[in-house]
Design a protein that fits this description.
Blueprint lengths: L1 H23 L4 H28 L2 H23 L3 H8 L3 H22 L2 H9 L2 H11 L6 H17 L3
Helix pairs in contact: 1-6, 1-8, 2-3, 2-5, 3-5
Length: 167
Amino acid sequence: MKTLVGILFICAGLVAYGLVQLWQNKEESRQLAFALITGLFIASYSITDAYGVRLVGSALSFFGAMALFNRLFLFFYLIVLERNFLPRLVRGYQHSFILGGLISFVCYLIILSAYQHLPVALVSSLRETSILFAILLGVLFLREKMTIGKGALVFVLALGIVFLYPV
């Protein structure tokens, strides 16, 4: 029951913040539809990842198989539709790309490991709290303002995380 309350706090906080942003920015209802469709895709790949890692029995093996199929698909796409991608990549290459790729690899592997042992709703809820880091990084490094809405979101998400903590 405590886990459900934590998940509900996190979901309610994110939905409320998103709706307030739509209302304040006078966005079209089409933007809400795009957000909901994006949520559907995120839920779909989360379920697929959890099912796949449990089926294979190893987060690293599943990640390796997915990486192979993704690279083959990407290579085919680049060859067919982005014929001049290699010169652009070479011109814009930075060493930070390697660090970014390694961090991405480690983060995805952690998520897959969590899916192997924990309920999908729990892992997915915690995964979405990454907005906390985005808010803090935005305030600290991009000089964005810490608004009352952002502060409230941080509080509600933190409260949800507290409820998820197994005591």
